[in-house]
Amino acid sequence: MLRIKEFFALDDLITARWGRQAFRHVDYCGLLPVRPVEHGGYECTPTNTLSFARTGGDGVHFSVLNARDETADGPVVMTVPLAEANLVVAETVAEFLSIGCQTGWFELEQLAYDAPATLAYYAAAPAPASAQEQAFLDLVRTELHVAPVALTAERLTDLEQRFGPQLQVPPFEGAEGI
Prior knowledge:
Layout: H1 4-18, E1 32-38, E2 49-54, E3 61-65, E4 76-80, E5 85-90, H2 93-100, H3 115-123, H4 131-143, H5 153-163
Antiparallel strand pairs: 1-2, 2-3, 3-4, 4-5
């Protein structure tokens, strides 16, 4: 079972290898660790999740449902604050890491805006990656022992039906009085 703490151990490995200059050697491909795990910090973030990574853009973050600490293993929820969306994208941390281990995780946020195009992106052959991106993706596959898995509409529907009702999202207060 692959847990958040194993992902954090990969971050420790990167730090040990390259230190504070890691950014010159590794691009985290939209999977920047959030250490320690924490609530995502947005009004639309489910209160029963803990964030372990972010994409680095627009507040998008990845959390584990009903997690207490970094020993959690899933399900993984992606929060896209600009779309006020929460999507269950994987049943386990291993499945989540497998989804992006060839192309990265940054494009996943587009599921909230154009799911068919995003699914097509992840189904296509991976685009050429920079040396820094490839270094990280190679580490994810070898150190965490993950292999690519398909991201499909059917899988996302199944995850949403099974885990979506468990998401505890506070009501949005910004719309009152309009």
